[in-house]
Design brief:
The protein is mainly alpha-helical. Helices cover about 85% and strands about 0% of the residues. α2 (about 15-35) crosses α7 (about 135-160), α5 (about 80-100) packs antiparallel against α6 (about 100-130) and α6 packs antiparallel against α7. The chain is globular, with a radius of gyration of 17 Å.
Length: about 160
């Protein structure tokens, strides 16, 4: 048995902490966006069709892009794909945050959605592959990190308002 299997659940390595932080940031961004929909609607004076486009267009782009990128996972390019995914995720969030027009907001969302899938899915796979004997503990921590972010995101938005 490896020493990491005996490690208490509250002691995580820097690698695991970073992977959990990735999951937290992804869920934080998504939950905050969901809570901010009325603010986005008012800021851009959107119709209901335009509001639905905020969800559907990024999802359609993600459905097309993620399987293609998924095929690259097996080519041992995880680190490079994670960096590209992180950069695209950040770029998409910045575009959404500072967009002066609805179309630019949609472009940011269309960049961020598939990048999130690539970035977060690779982080999760890397975390699980790092310590196969601790997968159950790792998944519990992963789920906790995401769940915590889903609660903290809207609360942070509320506090900011």
């Amino acid at each position: 048995m490896k020493p990491s299997a005996k490690r208490p659940w509250w002691r995580v390595s820097l690698f695991v902490f970073v992977m959990l932080l990735i999951e937290f940031l992804d869920e934080f961004a998504y939950s905050t966006l969901e809570a901010a929909r009325p603010l986005i609607r008012d800021a851009f004076e959107l119709t209901y069709v335009e509001i639905s486009q905020i969800t559907t267009i990024p999802l359609i782009v993600a459905i097309i892009v993620e399987p293609i990128v998924g095929l690259m996972f097996d080519q041992r390019k995880r680190r490079m794909l994670m960096v590209i995914g992180a950069a695209a995720f950040g770029t998409g969030l910045i575009l959404q945050g500072f967009s002066p027009a609805f179309w630019l907001f949609i472009v940011g969302a269309a960049i961020q959605a598939p990048a999130s899938g690539v970035f977060v899915n690779l982080a999760q796979a890397s975390m699980m592959d790092d310590a196969p004997e601790r997968r159950e503990n790792s998944m519990a921590l992963w789920t906790f990190s995401g769940s915590l972010a889903v609660v903290v995101g809207p609360l942070t938005l509320t506090a900011a308002l």
